[in-house]
Amino acid sequence: MGDDRSLAGVQHLAEEEAAAPAVHYDDEERPARALGGRVGAAVSIVAFAVAGLVLWQVFRPLAQGSQYYLIIFLAGTLPLVFLAYRSGWGRGRQTPTVSDWVLAAAALVVCLYPLNPFDGGYNGFLLRQGLLEPVDIVFGAVLLVLLIEACRRTTGWALPVVCLLFLGYAYYGGLLPQTWPIAHAGLDFGQIIDALYNSGSGFYGTPLDVAATYIVLFTIYGAVLDLSGASRFFVDLSVAAFRRSRSAAGRTAVAAGFLLGTVSGSGTATAVSVGAVTWPMLRRAGYPPEQAGGMLAAAGVGAILSPPTLGAAAFIVAEYLNVSYLTVLGWAMIPTLLYYLGILLAVEIDVRRFAVRAVDAPPTSAWRLLTRFGYHFSSLIVIVVLLALGQSATRSVVYATILAGALSFLDRDSRLTPPRIFAALAAGVRGVLPVVAVCAAAGVITATTTKTGLGAQLASLLVNGAKAITDEPAAVLALTAVLAAFALALLGLAVPVTASFIIGWVIIGPALLTLGVPAPAAAMFVFYYSVLSEVTPPTALAAVGASAITGGRTIPTMWQALKYALPAFLAPLAFVLTSEGEHLLARGSLFGIVWTTLVAGLAVLALAVATGAWVPGVGPAGWASRIAAGLSGLLLLYLAPASIVAGLTALLVAVLLAGFDRRRTGPQTPL
C-alpha cells in the first residue's frame, strides 16, 4: 500500500506533464505515445533524473570526462525511446509491449557495459581501443542495432537506411576496384565496432555531445517558458500588435511564428501551434487555405533559423568550428532578417492580390499586454547578454531557465510550482529523445567517413565534376555550390535536419573549403539548406502540418510555402560565391555589412515581385516584369559590383513594365 500511495503522486505529475503542451526542439520525430499511469510515472521519473544529471554536469562536470558522461546520458535516454515510441508493427498500443521492455532493458545494459567494474572498468575499456575483446564487440554490435531501431521509431526508415549504406561501404569498400576514388583498404567487423563504440568519432562523438550538453538544456528551457505562459503571450501579442492593419492577419501569423519559435525551435510544431490560433483569423480575412498554409509553414520554419534558439544543427556548427554559440547567433542575424523580410513582403503582396479584408480587432492592446506580460522576454535577453559577457551557452540557458521559472510567479495561472517544475524537466528530456537517437546514430556516418576518408574523396569528386564542365575558378565555385545545394535539398527530403547537416558537412563541407570558401560561410551554407528541407516538396513536413490545420491541399500548400521561403533558398549561395557574401554573416567591416545587407534586401524585394506577381506601389506584374524581377534578384545576390548594377537595372525594368501594364489596363486594387 505504501508503494501505491507514493507512486500515485508521481503518476499525477506524469499526467500533468503529458497534459502540458508538447515542446519540441527540432523536426526529428514521429508522434510519441501518450503514456500515463505507472508507466508514464516511471518514464517521467527517469527523464527527471536525466535532467538532474544534465544540470549537475553544467556546474560540476564528472571527473571521468565527457565520454563517461555521454555513456550515462545515453543509458538514461535510449531506453526511454523504446518505451515512449511505438515500433510501428502491429496495432500500435499506447502502452509498451513486452518487446519494448526487453529492448529498453537491453539498451540500458549495453550502454552501461563500458562502465562495468570487471576487466579494468571504464579505464580498461578505453585502453582496449583498437584491440576490443569479443565480448566488447558483441555489446557494441547490439548497441548499433538498438540505435538504428531507435532512429527508425522516431524518424522513419530513411536515416537507418543511410546508416546501413555507410556500414556496407565500410565493410565492403575494400572489395571495390582500387582505381576507384572511393575505394579503401577495407575494415573488418571488429574495426567498425571499435570505431563506433570506443572512439570519439562514433556513437559518443560531437553530435551526441551537442545533444547531451546543449540541446537538452534548451528543450528544458523551452518547456519552462511554455508552462510559464510565454507561448500564449507571444501569440496574443502578435494578434494585438497589428489589429488596425488590412495586413493584420498575415502579419500576425508571421510575428507569432517568429516569437513562438523562441520557445519550440521546431518548424512543424511552430506552424501547427500558430495555425491553430491564427487560421480562423486568416480565413475571415479571405486567405485561401493553401496560401495561408504556405505562410504558416514558412513562418514556422523560421523558428529553426532565428536566434536565440536556432535548430539543433546550429550547436553542431559551433562545435565543429570551435566557436562560441554567440558567434553562430551573430552569423544568423542578417539571414534571419532577410528571411522574414521576404515573408512579410509576400504577405503585403498577397493582401493586394487576394483582396484580403481587415478583421475585427481584439479588445486588448499590445501595449497593455507588454506592460502586464512583457517580462517573458527577459529570459531571452538574458541568454544573449550572458553569452556576450563570456558565460558558456550551457550556463547562460540554465540561468535564463531559472529566471523564467521565477518570473512565472507574476502570473497566478502559470506559476511553476514543484509539480510543474517536475513536469517541465521531464518534458524537456522527453522532447530531446528523437534528437538523441539521431545524433548517436549519426556516429555511424562520422566514424565511417573518418576511418575511410570518404568525405575527402566525395568532395574531390564534386569539385572535379564541376571542373569537367569549366576551368574558370568562379564558374567552378558556382557550379559546385549549386550542385551542393541540390544535393543537400535531396538529402533533406529523406533524413532529419540534424542528420542532414552532419552528412552534408562531412561530404560537402570539404568541397567548399577546398575551393577557398571560409569555414563559417561553408558551415552556414550547409546549415540553411539542411533546414530548408522542411518547406521543400514533396516531403515538406511544416507544410504538411499547416495543411492539416487549414484543410488545404497538401501539395499546393507546399508550393506556396516554397514561394514564401524562396529568398532563404538563394541567400546561402551568396555566402559562398563571392568574398562580399561573408558580410551577410556579419563578418567584415561595418560599411561592407550595411551595404551588402541593403543590396540583399533589394534582392529579396525583387524575388517577392517575381513570385507574387505584384510590384508594391505600382500594381500587378506581368510575365515580362516577373522575369526581369527574378533575374534582378539573382544578379543582386551575387553581390559583385557589376552584377549589382545589372540587377538594379533589371529591377528598374521590372517596375517600368509593371507601370506600363497598369497604365494600359487601368487602375487596380489600391494600396
List keywords for this structure.
single chain, 671 residues, mainly alpha, two-stranded antiparallel sheet, 29 helices, 2 strands, 1% strand, globular, disordered N terminus
Report on this model:
Mean pLDDT is 83; it is low at 1-29. This protein has helices spanning 2-19, 37-59, 66-84, 98-112, 121-127, 134-155, 158-172, 189-197, 206-227, 230-241, 248-264, 267-285, 289-305, 312-321, 325-353, 366-373, 378-388, 393-407, 418-452, 454-467, 473-494, 497-514, 519-531, 541-550, 554-564, 566-577, 590-612, 623-638, 641-665, and strands at residues 614-615, 619-620. The chain is mainly alpha-helical and 671 residues long. The protein is 73% helix and 1% strand.
In short:
The protein has 671 residues and is mainly alpha-helical. The chain contains 29 helices and two strands. Strands 1-2 form a two-stranded antiparallel sheet.
Summing up helix and strand content along with how strands pair, one would put the structural category as: mainly alpha
- Summed over residues and divided by their number, the pLDDT gives a mean of 83
Note poorly predicted spans: 1-29
What overall form do the CA principal axes indicate? globular
Compute the gyration radius: what is it?
26 Å
Please give the largest β-sheet. Answer: 2 strands, antiparallel
* Number of contiguous helices: 29
Termini gap: 72 Å
Total count of strands: 2
Strand arrangement, largest sheet?
1-2
* Fraction in beta strands: under 5%
Helix residue percentage: over 70%
